[in-house]
C-alpha cells in the first residue's frame, strides 16, 4: 500500500498514530505528481513549499498542536489566490500574476494543518465543462474506457482537482462550482465533490466568475473526506458580504448516520431526453439502496427545471462580463500596448482571454445592455426565483433529492469543444442548485459499460449539508464503489 | 413653486432657464465605502489603496456602516424619505481610474428618496428645491495627464471613497438660485457633519443640468410633470465653485438659446466647463453615451435598515440651519438678516449664543456679524479659530451696556482687542477709555464751548440740525469719552433746543 492510495481520513489517522510523517506523506505525493505530469492536472507544483509546510506540520504534531487536517497534502484549484504563489485562473491574462494575499478558504486549510502541493488546472476562469478552455491545455482524465487509450475529459471546470484526486496526486483538493464545476468533474473521475450552500464558504480571494453562483467546495476520495475538508473550508468571513454568519458543524459526524425515515425526492423533470440507459439504471439503483436503508422515496416535481440552463447561461455570463472587467491591463496581468487607450484595452483583452471567456463576456454584455436587460437578465432572475420556489415546494415533501450528476460519463477530449451548446448541456442537473443556492454533492455510484464512473447527486435544503452527507454516506456504503482508474500514466 | 424665472431676451422672444443639480458630496469618513483603506487629503499617490480598491482578483466589497449612517443622517437633514430597503448596483464602464471596471452605485433603489431644501435668495426671499433622491456610490481614482507627455498616471487614493449623490428636481430658475441651493446644501451637510463641504478639494461638486424654455412652459411642466414641456437639457459635469456654477449656467443657457434661435436643435449631451475660457464644451454626445449596463451587485446583499436604528440617528441630529435661524429670531429677537448671517455655519451661531448669554443679544449680534466677522474674513479664518474668545465680545458688550464705554469707544477698544492687547476691561482701564458720565465734567465742557462760540449757540436755536457740531466738539474736548447720551441731553437743555 502506497501512501498516496490512502484516503484523507486514513492518512490523518496514520499521521496521528505516527505511522509516517507528513514529510514522508508529502514526498510520496510530490513523486506521484512528477510521475503524472502527462495528466496536466497540476499547472504549478510547489514541492519546496510543500516539504517546508510538511516539516512544520510534523513539528507542530510533535508539540501536540495538531489541527484537524494536520500534515495532509492537498491540491489547490488555481482559482484560489495563494500568497506568493502564482495564481492564473488558467488564463493568459493572469499568466504571471502572483497574489500578495491568501484566499480565506485556503488559509483555513493551512490553519488546520494542511500542506499545499501546488496549483491545479481548470477551465479558464472556471468557464467550461471539460477543462479544455485552460490556457495551460486540457487535463486528461486518469480514467479510460476499457480497452481504449482515447484521452477523456475529467470534466470541468475543476478538472485538475478531480483528476488529481482520482489519480492519487493529493489527498483532496479545493474546487469551485458555479454551475456544476465540482460535481460534474467528480462524477467523471469517480470522486466525491460537494458544493455547499451558497454563503458557507467565503469567496474572498477566489477569482470571481459569477458572484451570485460561485461556491467553493472540496473534491475528495470519500464522502467522509469531503466532510472533513468542507468543515475546514466553511465558516463566516466578514470580508465576504454574502458569507453566512452561522456556526459550522463538524460535517463528518453526519457521515454514517442512519437515514431511516428520511424522505428522498425523485424529480421527474430530471429524466431528460437521450439520457443513457445506464444513467437511468444507476439512478434506480440509488433509489433502491436508499429504500433499503429505510428512506421513503417520494416523487416530486421541479417544474421549472427546463428553464434552469437558459437562465443560468444568462445570469452567469452577465455577472462574469462585469467581474472580468478588471482585467484591463492597467494594474496587473497581461498588457498589450496600443496606439490609444481603447486599443490597449482591445489588444490586452483580445490576447488575454480565450474564446470561451470572450463568448461569455459578449453574451453577458449583451444581456445587460439597454433594451435587452428586461427580456434577458430580468427574465432570468424571475426564472431563478421560480426555480428556488420549486425547491421550496419540494422541501415540504422531502428531506433530500436524488438525481444523476451529469447526463453522460466522461467524453473524449475534443468531442464537444466546437459545440458550446452540447458542452453547456453537461450542467443540466447541476445548475439548479447553484441558481437556488442549495448544497449538492456528487458521489461515484457505479461504472458504465465502458468501465467509466458515473455519479449520483444528492441535493439538500439550504444549510442542511448534514442530511446531504448522511444520505451520501448511505449511498456510498450501499454502492460499494471501490474502482480506481488503472494507472497508465 | 418657484416663480422667480429670469427672463433672457432673445432675438425671437423671451426665454427662461430651468436648472437641476446633481451634487456629489464626499462622505466625511475615515475609510472608504467598501474597503478599509484610509481616506484623506495630502497622502502620496496610491498610498491609500487597498487590495479591494485596486480591484485585485478575488477581492470583495464590504459596506462601511459609518457611511450608511452619514447618508441616513443627510437624508433626514434634507427632510427626505429614508428607504429602509435599498440596493447597490454596478455601473459598468472602462476607464483606467476605475479599477473594477464598474462603479458601485445605487440605481433604482436609492437609500434616500424625496425631500426638500428651503433656500434663501440674496434678497432674503426663500424658495424650495425638491430633492429627488440621495444615493451612495464610490468615487473613481484620478487620472493625471500632465506628468508625462506620453503617458497618463493614475492615482487611486480617491478610488472607492464614499460619495453621496444628491439629485434635485429642476426647481431652480436662475444661476444665482443654483449657487444659493448649493450653498444651502453645503451648510446643511456641514451642520450634519456628513461632508466637510470643501469645494476646493472637490469634496463637494455639482453636475448642472441646464435647459431653456419659453415663458409659461415651466409652469406647464410643473402642472403635469411632463418633461416634454421643457427644452433638451445638457449636463455640465463636475463644477466645483459657486462662481463657476453661475458662469457655466449663464454661458450654457445662452449657447442653447443661440442654437434654438438659429433654428437648430440642442443635443442632449454631457459637457465640461472650462473656467479659463468661461465656456462649456462637449464631452460626449448622447450617441457616445455609455450603456452602463446597470445590474444589482451580486457581491452585496440588499441594504436593509432597522427603523429603530434610523430613529436613533434622527434623535442625534443637530439643530439644522432653518430651525436655528427661526430660533435665533424668536429667542433673541434678531432680524432675519442677522440670524441668516449667524447660521451660515454652526460655529458662528454657537459663538454668538455663548457671547449673548445674559447680555443684549441684538448688540452682541451686531458685534459678531459686523466687526468680528469682518476681521475674521480679512484674516481668512473662521469663528472656530477666532483669536478673540466669545467671552471678550460678551465683556465688550457688557461695558457698553453698563455705560462704561460708548459704542464709539467700543470700536476703539475692539481694535486694541484684535491687536492682542488684552481683555476689553483691561484695555479700557489701561488706556483710560472709561466713559465720562460725570455731568459736572460734561457740563463744564459744554459751558466752555458755548462761551467760546456764542454766535453758533445762537444760530442753533433756529437750526437744530447744527447740534451735531456741538456734540462733536464736546466729544473732542473729552477725548471721545463723554457719554454721548448725556452730552446730547445737556446740550439740548443748555442751548434751548427741543
Helices and strands, with pairings:
The complex is a heterodimer of chains A (489) and B (498).
Chain A lengths: L7 H9 L5 H14 L6 E4 L1 H16 L10 E5 L26 H8 L3 E6 L38 H8 L5 E6 L5 H7 L2 E4 L19 E6 L2 H11 L29 E5 L9 H16 L3 E5 L7 H16 L17 H12 L2 H14 L5 H21 L5 E5 L15 H5 L6 H6 L3 E8 L5 E8 L4 H15 L10
Parallel strand pairs in A: 2-3, 7-8, 7-9
Antiparallel strand pairs in A: 1-3, 4-6, 5-6, 5-10, 9-11, 10-11
Chain B lengths: L7 E3 L2 E14 L38 H13 L7 E2 L2 E4 L9 E4 L9 E6 L5 E13 L3 E7 L2 E5 L6 E7 L6 H18 L11 E10 L3 H8 L9 E6 L2 H20 L7 E6 L4 E7 L9 E2 L6 E2 L2 H9 L5 H12 L3 H7 L3 H11 L4 H19 L10 H12 L5 H12 L5 H7 L8 H14 L1 H6 L7 H11 L6 H12 L3
Parallel strand pairs in B: 12-13
Antiparallel strand pairs in B: 1-2, 2-10, 2-11, 3-16, 4-5, 4-15, 6-7, 7-10, 8-9, 11-12, 13-14
Protein model, in words:
The complex is a heterodimer of chains A (489) and B (498). Chain A has 489 residues and is of the alpha/beta class. Chain A contains 15 helices and 11 strands. Chain A has helices at 8-16, 22-35, 47-62, 104-111, 159-166, 183-189, 223-233, 277-292, 308-323, 341-352, 355-368, 374-394, 420-424, 431-436, 465-479; strands at 42-45, 73-77, 115-120, 172-177, 192-195, 215-220, 263-267, 296-300, 400-404, 440-447, 453-460. In chain A, the strands form 2 sheets. Chain A has an 8-stranded mixed sheet with strand order 4-6-5-10-11-9-7-8, with helices on both faces. Chain A has a 3-stranded mixed sheet with strand order 1-3-2, with helices on both faces. The longest helix of chain A is centred in the C-terminal third of the chain and has 21 residues, at 374-394. Chain A is globular, with a radius of gyration of 21 Å. The mean pLDDT of chain A is 97. With 498 residues, chain B is α+β, with helices and mostly antiparallel strands. Chain B has 3 domains: 8-313, no CATH class; 319-430, no CATH class; 439-495, Arc Repressor Mutant, subunit A, CATH 1.10.10. Chain B is built from 16 helices and 16 strands. Chain B has helices at 65-77, 175-192, 217-224, 242-261, 307-315, 321-332, 336-342, 346-356, 361-379, 390-401, 407-418, 424-430, 439-452, 454-459, 467-477, 484-495; strands at 8-10, 13-26, 85-86, 89-92, 102-105, 115-120, 126-138, 142-148, 151-155, 162-168, 204-213, 234-239, 269-274, 279-285, 295-296, 303-304. In chain B, the strands form 4 sheets. In chain B, strands 1, 2, 6, 7, 10, 11, 12, 13 and 14 form a 9-stranded mixed sheet that branches. In chain B, β13 (269-274) and β14 form a beta hairpin. In chain B, α6 (321-332) packs across α7 (336-342). The two termini of chain B are 53 Å apart. Chain A binds chain B through residues 80-81, 87, 89, 94, 97, 99-101, 103, 203-208, 210-212, 238-242, 318-319, 321-322, 324-326, 328, 330-332, 341, 345, 365, 368-370, 373, 377, and chain B through 51, 54-63, 90, 92, 94, 96, 99-102, 152, 154, 291, 293-295, 298-301.
Amino acid at each position: 500500500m502506497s501512501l498516496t492510495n490512502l484516503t484523507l481520513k486514513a492518512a490523518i489517522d496514520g499521521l496521528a498514530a505516527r505511522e509516517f510523517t507528513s514529510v514522508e506523506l508529502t514526498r510520496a505525493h510530490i513523486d506521484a505528481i512528477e510521475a503524472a505530469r502527462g495528466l496536466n492536472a497540476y499547472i504549478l507544483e510547489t514541492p519546496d513549499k510543500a516539504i517546508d509546510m510538511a516539516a512544520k506540520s510534523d513539528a507542530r504534531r510533535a508539540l501536540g498542536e495538531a489541527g484537524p487536517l494536520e500534515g495532509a497534502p492537498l491540491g489547490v484549484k488555481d482559482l484560489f489566490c495563494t500568497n506568493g504563489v502564482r495564481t492564473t485562473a488558467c488564463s493568459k491574462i493572469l499568466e504571471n500574476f502572483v497574489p500578495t494575499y491568501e484566499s480565506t478558504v485556503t488559509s483555513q486549510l493551512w490553519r488546520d494543518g494542511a500542506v499545499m502541493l501546488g496549483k491545479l488546472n481548470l477551465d479558464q476562469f472556471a468557464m467550461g465543462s471539460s477543462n479544455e478552455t485552460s490556457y495551460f491545455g486540457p487535463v486528461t482524465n486518469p480514467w479510460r474506457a476499457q480497452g481504449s487509450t482515447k484521452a477523456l475529459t475529467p470534466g470541468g471546470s475543476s478538472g485538475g482537482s478531480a483528476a488529481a484526486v482520482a489519480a492519487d496526486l493529493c489527498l483532496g483538493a479545493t474546487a469551485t462550482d458555479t454551475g456544476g464545476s465540482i460535481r460534474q468533474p467528480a462524477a467523471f473521475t469517480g470522486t466525491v465533490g460537494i458544493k455547499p450552500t451558497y454563503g458557507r464558504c467565503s469567496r474572498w480571494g477566489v477569482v470571481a466568475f459569477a458572484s451570485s453562483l460561485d461556491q467553493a467546495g472540496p473534491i475528495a476520495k470519500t464522502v467522509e473526506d469531503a466532510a472533513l475538508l468542507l468543515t475546514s473550508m466553511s465558516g463566516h468571513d466578514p470580508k465576504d458580504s454574502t458569507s453566512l454568519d452561522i456556526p459550522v458543524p463538524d460535517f463528518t459526524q453526519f457521515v454514517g448516520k442512519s437515514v431511516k425515515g428520511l424522505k428522498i425526492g425523485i424529480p421527474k423533470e430530471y429524466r431528460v431526453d437521450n439520457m443513457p440507459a445506464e444513467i437511468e439504471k444507476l439512478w434506480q439503483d440509488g433509489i433502491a439502496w436508499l429504500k433499503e436503508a429505510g428512506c421513503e422515496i417520494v416523487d416530486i416535481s421541479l417544474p421549472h427545471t427546463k428553464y434552469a440552463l437558459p437562465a443560468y447561461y444568462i445570469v452567469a455570463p452577465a455577472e462574469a462580463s462585469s467581474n472580468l472587467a478588471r482585467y484591463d491591463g492597467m494594474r496587473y496581468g497581461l498588457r498589450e500596448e496600443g496606439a490609444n487607450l481603447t486599443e490597449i484595452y482591445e489588444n490586452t483583452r483580445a490576447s488575454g482571454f480565450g474564446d470561451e471567456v470572450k463568448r461569455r463576456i459578449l453574451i453577458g454584455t449583451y444581456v445587460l445592455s439597454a433594451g435587452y436587460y428586461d427580456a434577458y437578465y430580468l427574465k432570468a432572475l424571475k426564472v431563478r426565483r421560480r426555480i428556488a420556489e420549486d425547491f421550496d415546494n419540494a422541501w415540504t415533501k422531502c428531506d433530500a433529492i436524488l438525481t444523476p450528476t451529469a447526463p453522460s460519463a466522461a467524453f473524449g477530449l475534443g468531442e464537444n469543444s466546437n459545440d458550446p451548446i452540447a458542452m453547456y448541456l453537461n450542467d443540466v442537473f447541476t445548475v439548479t442548485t447553484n441558481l437556488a443556492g442549495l448544497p449538492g454533492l456528487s458521489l461515484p455510484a457505479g461504472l458504465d459499460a465502458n468501465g467509466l464512473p458515473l455519479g449520483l447527486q444528492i441535493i439538500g435544503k439550504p444549510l442542511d449539508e448534514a442530511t446531504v452527507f448522511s444520505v451520501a454516506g448511505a449511498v456510498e456504503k450501499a454502492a460499494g464503489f471501490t474502482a480506481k482508474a488503472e494507472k497508465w500514466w | 413653486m418657484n416663480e422667480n424665472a429670469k427672463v433672457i431676451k432673445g432675438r425671437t422672444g423671451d426665454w427662461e432657464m430651468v436648472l437641476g443639480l446633481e451634487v456629489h458630496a464626499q462622505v466625511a469618513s475615515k475609510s472608504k465605502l467598501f474597503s478599509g483603506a484610509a481616506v484623506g487629503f495630502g497622502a502620496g499617490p496610491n498610498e491609500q489603496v487597498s487590495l479591494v480598491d485596486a480591484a485585485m482578483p478575488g477581492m470583495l466589497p464590504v459596506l462601511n456602516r459609518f457611511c450608511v449612517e452619514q447618508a441616513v443622517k443627510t437624508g433626514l437633514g434634507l427632510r427626505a424619505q429614508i428607504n429602509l430597503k435599498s440596493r447597490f448596483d454596478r455601473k459598468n464602464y472602462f476607464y483606467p481610474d476605475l479599477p473594477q471596471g464598474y462603479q458601485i452605485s445605487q440605481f433604482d433603489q436609492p437609500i434616500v428618496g424625496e425631500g426638500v431644501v428651503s433656500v434663501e435668495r440674496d434678497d432674503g426671499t426663500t424658495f424650495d428645491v425638491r430633492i429627488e433622491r440621495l444615493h451612495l456610490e464610490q468615487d473613481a481614482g484620478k487620472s493625471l495627464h500632465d506628468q508625462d507627455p506620453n503617458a497618463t498616471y493614475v492615482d487611486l487614493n480617491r478610488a472607492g471613497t464614499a460619495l453621496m449623490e444628491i439629485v434635485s428636481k429642476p426647481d431652480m430658475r436662475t444661476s444665482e438660485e443654483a449657487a444659493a441651493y448649493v450653498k444651502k446644501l453645503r451648510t446643511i451637510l456641514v451642520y450634519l457633519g456628513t461632508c466637510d463641504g470643501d469645494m476646493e478639494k472637490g469634496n463637494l461638486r455639482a453636475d448642472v443640468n441646464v435647459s431653456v424654455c419659453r415663458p409659461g412652459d415651466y409652469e406647464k411642466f410643473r402642472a403635469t410633470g411632463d418633461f416634454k414641456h421643457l427644452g433638451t437639457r445638457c449636463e455640465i459635469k463636475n463644477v466645483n465653485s459657486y462662481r463657476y456654477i453661475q458662469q457655466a449656467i449663464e454661458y450654457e443657457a445662452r449657447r442653447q438659446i443661440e442654437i434654438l434661435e438659429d433654428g437648430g436643435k440642442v443635443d442632449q449631451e454631457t459637457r465640461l466647463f472650462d473656467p479659463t475660457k468661461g465656456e462649456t464644451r462637449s464631452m460626449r454626445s448622447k450617441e457616445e453615451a455609455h450603456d452602463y449596463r446597470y445590474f444589482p451587485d451580486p457581491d452585496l446583499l440588499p441594504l436593509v435598515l432597522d427603523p429603530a436604528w434610523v430613529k436613533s440617528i434622527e434623535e442625534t441630529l443637530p439643530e439644522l440651519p432653518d430651525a436655528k435661524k427661526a430660533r435665533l429670531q424668536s429667542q433673541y429677537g434678531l432680524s432675519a438678516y442677522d440670524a441668516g448671517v449667524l447660521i451660515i455655519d454652526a460655529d458662528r451661531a454657537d459663538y454668538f449664543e455663548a457671547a449673548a448669554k445674559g447680555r443684549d443679544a441684538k448688540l452682541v449680534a451686531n458685534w459678531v456679524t459686523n466687526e468680528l466677522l469682518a476681521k475674521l474674513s480679512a484674516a481668512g479664518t473662521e469663528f472656530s479659530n477666532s483669536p478673540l474668545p466669545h467671552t471678550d465680545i460678551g465683556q465688550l458688550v457688557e461695558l457698553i451696556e453698563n455705560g462704561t464705554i460708548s459704542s464709539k469707544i467700543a470700536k476703539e477698544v475692539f481694535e486694541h482687542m484684535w491687536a492682542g492687547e488684552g481683555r476689553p476691561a483691561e484695555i479700557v482701564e489701561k488706556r483710560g477709555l472709561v466713559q465720562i458720565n460725570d455731568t459736572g465734567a460734561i457740563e463744564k465742557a459744554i459751558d466752555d464751548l458755548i462761551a467760546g462760540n456764542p454766535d453758533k449757540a445762537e444760530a442753533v436755536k433756529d437750526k437744530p440740525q447744527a447740534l451735531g457740531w456741538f456734540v462733536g466738539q464736546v466729544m473732542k474736548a473729552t477725548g471721545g469719552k463723554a457719554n454721548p447720551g448725556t452730552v446730547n441731553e445737556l446740550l439740548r437743555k443748555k442751548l434751548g433746543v427741543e
